[in-house]
Each structure stands twice: as C-alpha cells, then as structure tokens.
C-alpha cells in the first residue's frame, strides 16, 4: 500500500528540550493509525508537526523530514493554509470558537470558497451526524457553541474538522471526555470515515487503540519503540517495553 | 500585642467602605454641583443659538459644532492608526527589544502633558505646515494625544483573546489575516471600543491642546481650515475671563451630559455586539 504520510528521522525540540527523537514511520492511505504512549512521550507534538501547527510554538526546532503524498511539508515555503485544509487536527482540549454551532462548522469551508448556503447547511448536517451530535443540537444550530457541555464541544470540534473535508484527520484524544456509549459511536464513525480519509488517532486508552486502529506506533520518552499491525503489536509485541505498557505494568 | 482578627476585619471593612464612599461622594458632588448651576441655563435656544457678545448672551451652538468636528476628526485619524499598531505589535512581531521600544515610546507619549503636546501641535501643524488655528490642526494634535490610549487598550484586548482560538483557526486552514479579522478582532472588539470611548471622552474635555491648535473663534466652522472654539475651551474662556459664570456652567453641564450619553450608548451597543459574538 502507498504511504500517505512518511516520517523520516523526525526530531523536535522546544528550545534545548528534545521531545521527539529520530522518529520514522509510515501512515498508509485509508487506514486508522494509532499513536499510543504515556504522557509526555511526544504524541501531541507529533500531531502538531503533521499540520505545522508546531510553527506557532516559540523557540521550536524540527529536523528530519515529513512527506505528504511525497511532498516535503516541512519545506519553509510550503503552503500552510493548503496543508491545513488537507490535514485537519482535532486538539485534545475542545475549543469552540465564540460563535454559533453552525458558524463554527461552516467558517472554514465558507472561507475556502466552498459553495453556497444550501451546500453549507447540508455540510453542517452531515458533519454533525458523523460526529454523533446532530440529534442533540439540530434545534439550536444558531445558538452559541460555548454553551455546549464538554462532551458536546468535543464532538463539535470533531464535526468542525470533518466539515473541512480534509484528506487526513489527526485526532488527539477525541473521546477523553465522553461516556462509553458516545465513545463507541465515535469509533463506529471512524470506521465509516476510513474509506475516504486517513486517520491518525492519539489515545491514552490502550483498549481504544486495540479496538479502533489498523496499525499502531508506540512512543516512549520521545522515542519510537515499535510500530506494526495493531493485532500483532498487541498479541506478540517485539519490545519488552511495549508489552509492559499494553499490559498496564507502567504508564 | 496583636489585634483580634475579628476586630481588624471589621475595622478594615469600615475603612475601605469609607474610601469607596468618599470617591463616590466627590463624583456625585461634582455632577450635582454642575447640574444645579448649569441646567437652568440649558434651553433649546441655548443649544441652537450661536454665542453673542463673547458668550455673555446667546447659546453655544458653534462650540458644539466645533467640538463634534474636532473630536470626530481625532478619532477617525487615531482609531485606525492605533488599532493597526496594536495588531502589528501583538500578531506580527515576536516580543523583543523592538516591540519593547515601541511600547516604551507609546507610554512616553501618553505621559506628555497636554499643554506641551499643544505647543508641539502649534509649532508643527499651525506654523510649520501652515494649517493655522484650525479644526485640522486641533484634530491632528488630539489624535496624537489619544493614540497611546487606543494602542494600549487595543493591545491588551487583542492579547486577552485566547491563544487557542488562533490555534483552532490555523488548524482549520484560515490564513493569518482571516484569523485576525474573523475571530481575533471581533473577540477583542469590546476592549478596543472601550479604549476608543475613553479617547472620545478625553478629546471632548481637552482644552490645553485646542487653545494652541484650534484657536477660539466663535464662528461656526465650515471647513477643516476654519478655527473653532470647542465647548471645553469656551467654558475655560468664559470662566477664566469672568465673562459669564452661568453660561460657563451651562456649557459644562452640556459637556458632562454628552459624555455620559456617549458612554451609555456605547455600552449598550457593546452589549449588543457581545451577544452577537458569543
């Protein structure tokens, strides 16, 4: 299968502090790729590098290469607006913009020149349905998004990224604030989205990684320990540390 | 010996209450005093007639017109400059010695006594550039006076917009300028407007700057190059030269009421806007 994203000896520094060390792996098109590891292992930073949101971090430095469909996205003159439209990121902390639910969803598509009001309304509906939020908010689309509960905000942020219709979706702990039923529904959504999107899922929840992902990478203290087919990594890990992590002996 | 904490608690509460009450008392005293002495002069004729006999008789119409012209001109000039500078300082520069220098410069400008600013306006606009005593010279100098206020308040307002909003906008593929115009500025608008309203108040009440730059002609100004006497200057001259204390108080009352009204209108507009953007 083709590599959608390829990381090659990627290192990342906050000032002198190194948070990613020589990380190399591939993410294939139309798979759900899991990233697991304890806190501070560099998972969130890695996601931010993939859509260059890491550029906002002062004193950050990145070495190595990351390619998306063969294009070097770390090139200094790479079109960031275009990149971020192709690679959507859902941050771990849900941040709705201080607008209505509807405006949150259609802001980006409208500014990228996608279609008319009717199209945007349909887009909002399909994205909300995919994020399992539609039934709860369909009667108050024009109410402020700030009044939603934490779990609803999390699903709104997922819907907002889906509404951009990106090629790659980066999810940082998308179900951390959700109950098991909503979590199951979101995971079901991810399976459906797989045919059209490439998904990278960061989670602290090893059970979720085992359930939802096709392949997985295990990061520990800034280093990539192991990468492979999820069932294989979970049943016969090559590295003792991976075994310890998934069986809950540490982390 | 230490004071009983319950006692010191009560004592401090009374003391702080007294301080607050005293401040409030001064404010109310000024408003009541000026209203009692000024409001009896205020009639439709007082508002709509030009001053006669140096202001001994007649109304204050021409001074109202001059005040509006000078203030509007100053705000129209200073707002885009000030808000623009604030956007540049917060969104387009990294914190460093250059931004610190610019900010220090703005602080210094804010600290310049208005009479000295007036002298500067006189030398530059009235004499050097040949605008004469005019609405234009007055407006330009007032704009320089309020610029630091607008820069400072706008900067604080823009900085107070959560960094996360910018992260979200960028990750949604908005450009920097789209992020600023669509999300950052609307969120900062209440703070920015507060700074602008503060500047309107300062401009309405300013005398020293305008004595030097806009002059004191009692005719109604009809062009940017006409001299004009603002309400505050009119009040100053009436009172200082003992021309007519009742009319001075009448002018003061109108000035006070208009500042109050502007603040109320601005406040309610802001409430309306904030509802729209949240």
UniProtKB/TrEMBL annotation, chain B:
The family this protein is said to belong to: Belongs to the binding-protein-dependent transport system permease family. CysTW subfamily.
Principal location: membrane
Subcellular localization, as worded in the UniProt entry: Cell membrane
Gene3D superfamilies referenced in this protein's UniProt entry, alphabetically: MetI-like
One GO-annotated biological process of the protein: phosphate ion transmembrane transport
Name of the molecule in the record: Phosphate transport system permease protein PstA
Topology term for the membrane: Multi-pass membrane protein
A GO molecular-function descriptor: phosphate transmembrane transporter activity
Keyword field: Cell membrane, Membrane, Transmembrane, Transmembrane helix, Transport
GO cellular component: plasma membrane
Taxonomy, superkingdom: Bacteria
ABC transmembrane type-1 domain: residues covered: 64-266
InterPro entries noted in UniProt: MetI-like (IPR000515), MetI-like_sf (IPR035906), Phosphate_PstA (IPR005672)
Pfam families xref list: BPD_transp_1 (PF00528)
Ranges that cross the membrane: 12-36, 60-89, 101-125, 131-151, 183-201, 248-270
């Amino acid at each position: 299968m083709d590599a959608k994203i390829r990381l090659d000896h990627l290192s990342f520094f906050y000032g002198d502090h190194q948070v990613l060390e020589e990380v190399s792996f591939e993410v294939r098109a139309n798979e759900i790729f899991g990233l697991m590891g304890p806190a501070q292992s560099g998972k969130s930073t890695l996601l931010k590098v993939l859509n260059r949101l890491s550029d906002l971090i002062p004193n950050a430095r990145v070495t190595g290469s990351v390619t998306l469909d063969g294009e070097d996205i770390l090139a200094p003159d790479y079109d960031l607006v275009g990149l971020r439209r192709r690679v959507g990121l859902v941050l771990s902390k849900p941040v709705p913009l201080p607008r209505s639910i509807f405006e949150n969803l259609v802001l980006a598509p409208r500014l990228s020149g996608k279609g008319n009001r009717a199209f945007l309304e349909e887009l909002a509906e399909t994205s909300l349905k995919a994020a399992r939020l539609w039934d709860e908010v369909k009667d108050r689309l024009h109410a402020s998004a700030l009044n939603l509960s934490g779990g609803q905000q999390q699903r709104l942020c997922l819907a907002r990224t889906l509404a951009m219709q990106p090629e790659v979706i980066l999810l940082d702990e998308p179900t951390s604030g959700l109950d098991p039923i909503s979590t199951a529904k979101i995971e079901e959504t991810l399976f459906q989205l797989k045919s059209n999107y490439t998904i990278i899922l960061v989670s602290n929840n090893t059970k979720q990684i085992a359930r939802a992902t096709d392949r997985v990478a295990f990061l520990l203290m800034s280093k990539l320990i192991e990468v492979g087919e999820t069932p294989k990594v979970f049943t016969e890990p090559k590295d003792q540390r991976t075994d310890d992590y998934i069986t809950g002996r540490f982390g | 010996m230490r004071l009983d904490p319950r006692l010191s608690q009560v004592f401090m509460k009374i003391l702080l209450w007294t301080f607050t009450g005293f401040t409030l008392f001064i404010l109310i005293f000024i408003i009541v005093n000026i209203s009692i002495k000024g409001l009896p002069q205020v009639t439709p004729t007082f508002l709509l007639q030009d001053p006669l006999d140096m202001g001994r008789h007649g109304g204050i119409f021409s001074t109202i017109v001059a005040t509006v012209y000078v203030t509007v001109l100053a705000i129209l000039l200073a707002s885009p400059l000030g808000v623009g500078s604030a956007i540049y300082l917060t969104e387009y520069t990294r914190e460093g010695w250059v931004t610190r220098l610019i900010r220090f410069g703005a602080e210094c400008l804010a600290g310049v006594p208005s009479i000295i600013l007036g002298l500067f306006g006189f030398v530059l606009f009235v004499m050097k550039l040949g605008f004469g005593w005019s609405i234009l010279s007055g407006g330009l100098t007032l704009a320089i006076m309020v610029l630091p206020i607008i820069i400072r308040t706008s900067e604080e307002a823009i900085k107070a917009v959560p960094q996360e909003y910018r992260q979200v906008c960028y990750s949604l593929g908005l450009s920097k300028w789209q992020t600023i115009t669509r999300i950052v500025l609307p969120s900062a608008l209440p703070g920015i407007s507060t700074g602008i309203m503060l500047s309107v108040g300062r401009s309405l009440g300013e005398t020293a700057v305008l004595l030097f730059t806009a002059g004191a002609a009692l005719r109604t100004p009809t062009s940017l190059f006409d001299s004009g006497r603002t309400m505050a200057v009119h009040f100053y001259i009436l009172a200082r030269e003992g021309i007519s204390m009742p009319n001075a108080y009448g002018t003061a009352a109108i000035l006070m009421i208009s500042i109050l009204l502007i603040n109320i209108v601005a406040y309610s507009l802001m409430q309306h806007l904030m509802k729209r953007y949240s």
